[in-house]
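Hi there, hope your week has been kind to you so far. Do you reckon you could talk me through the fold, stretch by stretch? I've dropped the whole record in just underneath, so have a look:
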Amino acid sequence: MILYKKCMRHVKNEKGVVMIITLLLMVIMTMIGVGILNRSTMQIRAVASVRKAMTSSLSAESGVFGVTGWMLFHRRADVPSEIRIKTDLYETDFFVLDSGAVVELPGYSAKWRGMVTRMDSHSPNKTNAVSTIEAVSFIPVAPAGYGNEPR
């Protein structure tokens, strides 16, 4: 019984210690939670920025591929305006630099007559991330050396 009274007297003197320790642990845990939240927010912003830049770059690239693909398929430079001028994804300008070029393409035994074009394609400023791509390409029109060379 005497031991019990000594323990109880010791406990009565330290009534607020548990509350102070609990409050300190709560503050530390709150600070850790706020730190994790801030880090997650920064990572989300970084991913969004990379996504905007990639979307912008791929949009500009799609302009080059769209116009070049049309010219390769049809083998001519009169690209319709709905393909080359302006779409929701890209705005492209192209210029025919040399319409009578003769080039030996890799993988072909014959030389090809065609046109050398320069394209400027950029994505619209929807996301504040504008990408611009410049490309020079050769569009083969017909094999050369079969009497179809310009005179």
About this structure: The CA atoms of residues 9 and 132 lie 80 Å apart.
